[in-house]
TrEMBL record:
The protein's name in its UniProt record: Enoyl-CoA hydratase
Origin: domain of life: Bacteria
Predominant location category: other
Compartment(s) of residence: Peroxisome
Organism, scientific name: Steroidobacter denitrificans
InterPro entries according to UniProt: ClpP/crotonase-like_dom_sf (IPR029045), ECH/Chromodomain_protein (IPR051053), Enoyl-CoA_hydra/iso (IPR001753)
Cross-referenced Pfam families: ECH_1 (PF00378)
Transmembrane parts of this sequence: none
Gene3D superfamilies hit by this protein: 2-enoyl-CoA Hydratase, Chain A, domain 1
GO MF terms, alphabetically ordered: delta(3)-delta(2)-enoyl-CoA isomerase activity
PANTHER family named among the record's database cross-references: ENOYL-COA DELTA ISOMERASE 2, PTHR43684
Keywords linked to the UniProt accession: Isomerase, Peroxisome
Amino acid sequence: MNAATAHIVTERLQGVLRVEIRRPEKKNALTAAMYGQLADIFQDAAGDKDTRVLLLHGQPGVFTAGNDLGEFLNDPPMNEDAPVFRFLAVFRDFPKPFMAAVTGPAVGIGTTMLLHCDLVYAGEGARFQLPFVGLGLCPEAASSLLLPALVGHARAAEIILLGEPFGAQQAREIGLVNAVLPDAGLLDHALLQARKLAAQPPAAVRLSKQLLKRSQTALIAAAMEEEDRQFKVRLVSPEAKEAFGAFLDKRPPDFSQFS
């Protein structure tokens, strides 16, 4: 068993593919290997007739801290075949219901991927954050399109430009999550809802999802393409290097020399 396999665990039961991010010692920070495995899981599930719903969750008390910043700094993904970009593409195009159960921190892609989910349930202790700007980066996963569409420009600007964390109740208020539940019972509730969905007529479910998303499909693809292009530029920018270095050194970043 390699590290990525140990950090991503799956189980399929009653038509529900449960995908668990399991790297608690690093707050479930995602490496390139983990992104690659997640992309493969989504791709395989899309064509697997026994999988009707995919439910993604983390460890108790943590969904994911987002990207492994040390790896991003040392080996930034710079081409379309990079695992992170493959993962973004496969969950964007996933044809079956995509659900998430979130407890604890959901940082960066841990929040932006929720904009693509069909159902999201959050624990009372969930905390969401888009820290891209503070890291010298830009939004990804079409969040520059989907978040303003969900919450309006003013609130989206506050969430993206300031990058401050917000809690589960605010996430419910703005429509990012369907419901907020006690942390201890969250996964059981999400699994119950997933099984209900898996029991529905599968072709009708897939078609309904496609129709619900049809007005934004081309816009999402275009937004993600432009974000990916800009993200690659930002990853090797002096601002990002300063931000990442400061994070790893546990010091405040200094952006005073940039204009």
